[in-house]
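#struct-help
A.M.: can someone run this one for me? Single chain, 89 residues.
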Amino acid sequence: MFSQCNVVDDGTGVIPCAQFVAPDEVPAMCQMYELGSTVCVEGRLSTFRDVRQVVIRSIKHIDPNQEVLGWLERLSLRQFLQASIEPQI
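D.P.: on it. Structure tokens below:
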């Protein structure tokens, strides 16, 4: 088993990430990203030696515009949900 450690900054904080892969998958799974790259990380939260980390299931490079579109979608959803719980007069 091979592990690769990254640190991800989502704008609200920094969290360590660990990725565990079999030796035959190392070239395909472990890719280095340049500082400032926009990536999408999927995984689960865990604690290792009293430090919170994300155990990566998948990581991929994405277009920076996708991040902005994601924020806009969440803002729109928030406004929709707030409007739906306000009493109708």
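A.M.: thanks! The CA atoms of residues 5 and 18 lie 5 Å apart.
D.P.: also worth noting: Strands lie at 2-9, 14-21, 39-48, 51-61.
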